[in-house]
Amino acid sequence: MQGKFITFEGIDGAGKSTHIGFVTDYLTSRGKQIVSSREPGGTPLGEKLRDLLLHEKMHLETEALLMFASRREHIAQVIAPNLAAGKWVLSDRFTDASFAYQSGGRGLPRAKMEALEAWVHPELQPDLTLLFDVPLEVARQRLDATRTLDKFEREQADFFAKCRAEYLRRAEQFPERFVVVDSTRSIADIQASLAQVLEKLL
After folding, report:
1. Is position 48 annotated in a ligand binding site?
2. Tens digit of each residue's pLDDT (9 = 90 or more) over 147-197
3. Quick one: which of 83, 54, 81, 79 has its CA closest to 67?
4. What are phi and psi of 56, to 5 degrees?
5. Does 17 count as an annotated binding residue?
6. Where are any strands of DSSP class E within 73-200?
7. Do the annotations mark residue 11 as ligand-binding?
8. 29 appears as a binding residue in the annotation
9. Is 84 exposed, middle or buried (0-12, 13-18, 19+ CB in 10 A)?
10. 16 annotated to bind ligand
């Protein structure tokens, strides 16, 4: 029995990471085997690429190519085999993040992103993408001021405005898999709505 693939998206500070644990616990309580991962990363090679991607300056196209290189390894080593084994794979970010950050935020032509997506995973798409959406000022306030921010988190407001706009455009383009979550609500309210969404997949 094929498993399900759920991705968590949103600009930095949107609160998506807060809810991954809830979704994991919810699905586990209903007998599902869960594999939780992240992008960039998810594999030993991917984690090395993550460190480079989050902290090193590089050409925009190099950044996009490395993101998809990490993703290709992630699919081959984690996502595809676990789905085939009937497990549910949860990923903190997937290709929608590349569209949002490298295309929306950084301005890489969308056609190049679409070509990479078609090459790296022509058939694989999430069964459900949860897009946690908040106004920019809320997202910025939520970033922990006590920790060291990576190069993306240090970007200016206009960058995140473009990222958010691209996320919402993707949600309109693929309404069959996207659920936009108003992440300004209380955690309890959000998790109640997540439970309703997840029940439809079970």
Report:
1. no
2. 567 678 777 778 989 999 999 999 999 999 999 999 999 999 999 999 999
3. 54
4. -105, 140
5. yes
6. 88-92, 128-133, 178-182
7. yes
8. no
9. exposed
10. yes
What integer pLDDT is reported at residue 102 of this predicted model? Answer: 96
CB 132 within 8 A of CB 16: yes
Q: How far apart are CA 83 and CA 74, in angstroms?
A: 12
The residue assigned the tokens 């991917």 is 46
Give the residue extent of every domain in the chain.
5-200
Residue located via tokens 């997540």: 194
d(CA 3, CA 78): 12
Cβ–Cβ contacts within 10 Å for residue 162, how many? 19
Question: Residue 157: what residue type?
Answer: A
Alpha-carbon Rg for the chain, nearest whole angstrom, is 16
Q: CATH says 5-200 is which class?
A: alpha beta
**15 is known to lie in a ligand binding site:** yes
